[in-house]
Structure formats: C-alpha cells, structure tokens
Amino acid sequence: MPSSPDSPVVPSQDRVVVLVSGGGSNLAALLEAHRDPGYGARVVGVVSDRVEAGGLEIARAAGIPTAVVSPKDFDDRPSWDRGMAEAVGVFDPGLVVSAGFMRILGAPVLERFERVINTHPALLPAFPGAHGVRDALAYGVTVTGCTVHLVDAGVDTGPIIAQQAVEVLPEDDEATLHERIKVVERALLVDVVGRAARHGIHLDGRRAQLLEPAG
C-alpha cells in the first residue's frame, strides 16, 4: 500500500506512476516538470523494488505516495509480478514509467497497463541490458545516446518512441559518458512523458509515434 495519503484527483490518462530502483534523477526531473499545470502529466505514485532506493526519498520529500515491492517479501517470481501489478494499480495510472528500474516487468504488469515506457542509456537496438554504456565503450563506437521505448516482455526490445545521440569523447570512461548521457536522457524522458500524457502514443506494429495536438 502507498506510504502516504491518496494524491489529488487527476484524470486517469494524466496519472503517472514511476518505477525506480536507484537514486531517482529521472524521477526528480519528472517531478520538476509536473509542477507546471500545462505539462499534462502528474506523478501520482512511485514504486520501487528496493526499500533503500534514493528515489523513494525524493518522492516523499515532494509529497508523492510510495510503495515498495521487494522480491524478498514474495515466495516466487510470479507472486512478485502480481504484487507489482497490484501496487502500481493502487494509483490508477494512465502511464507507467520505468526510470532506472532494474527488473524486468512480468505479464501481470504489462497486460494490466497499456502504456509502460522505459528509458535506456544507449541507442537501441544496440547495447541492450544493464551495461549499455560499458558495452558501447567496449565496442568502440563514436556515437551512443539514449532511448525511450515502450516496454514488452523482452530486455529493451519494445518499440522505440524517441532517441537522442551523444558523442563519445576520446577521454570518456564509463562514468563520464554515463553522466553526459543522463543529462540528455532526463530531458528526453520529460519531453516524451509530457507529450504522451497530453496527446497519446500511436502504435503501428513496431512504430511508436507521439501524437500531435489536434488542429
């Protein structure tokens, strides 16, 4: 259950639940954006798989209800998947955002919520998985970047919504490159979430397109 009272009434399609496992820098950017009434999206809940996730403190400081669904509290993976679906469902979201959430979402979440998006620090389909920045450096690419995509049952395999390139500098190591990607990633995620909430996402096969305002 959420750790604080219900959020203010927000239309269902505008309600956003953010999933976090770590420090929550993407969450912080979304919370800053949602302070503008014209942004269109409102973060109404934050769910984590780790009780010590820094993103939870960011949410609580902003007055956003939180929930923790730790795998150790469940007998097996299917029961954890169902627990995640229930925890997210408490907030009645129109959009679920995986922002630094380090676990694959199972069928109970993906079947219950139509719009689940994720951000990844590489230009998919290149370098999926938990070490996208490290893998890009090891491969020797001169350009990498970040991707916002719809989530499916695979690992970073869902339809791509938006991408932004980041140059790899000769002096880059994993930490410096990742920090520069994060700056671009935050801005891209904020833009995609706001536009998705305001106007929607059209999916045609593997083509995911942010819709434009009518007229």
TrEMBL record:
Domain spans labelled Formyl transferase N-terminal: 15-193
InterPro entries xrefs: Formyl_transf_N, Formyl_transf_N_sf, GART, GART_AS
GO terms (BP aspect): 'de novo' IMP biosynthetic process
Superkingdom of origin: Bacteria
Gene Ontology CC terms, in alphabetical order: cytosol
Stated family: Belongs to the GART family.
Name of the protein in question: Phosphoribosylglycinamide formyltransferase
Organism expressing this protein natively: Actinotalea soli
